[in-house]
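As a warm-up, study this chain.
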Amino acid sequence: METRPKYINQNSFYGSDYFLSRVGYEDKWNRVKRLGDAYYENELIERSITEKLGTRFLNGKEISAKDLMDNAAEEAKKNGLTIGKSLTKEQIAKLDKDIVWYEYQNVDGIQVLVPKIYLSKNTLKNLNNDSRSRITGIENTYVRTGNLENTGLIGGYGNTYVEAKEVN
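Now compare it with the structure written out below.
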């Protein structure tokens, strides 16, 4: 997948080129098939974060693809991660930071590197201790109720509609 350069400045986004340079990939880059360009990969990463967390913010800070890739470089050295391979349960348990890791997937019969988000044990602990409610969706999120008591997050990656007689 490639974005039309007329509309998107690719230099504003971090994708697999940046990731591979950070983790020290040494083979010929043109041999590695990627799912898309930096813009497309950023979109996938942001959607994945929103799906997992219900928001793009963690501890009051926006999570960026660049931060996750920088974290991945550190974690790869500490935990012996291999580009293209999914993390084992043991490797996931050892993560001190949230990361994006590129793994091989078969897409239309072609092996391509695809970004996948892995959350650290600290993030997972914070999520499990978070008692706020969340309503999230990918394309369209529609909430219809009589009374809405919002003590958490209502959001969607696309359009979000809330219809209520009373909102508190």
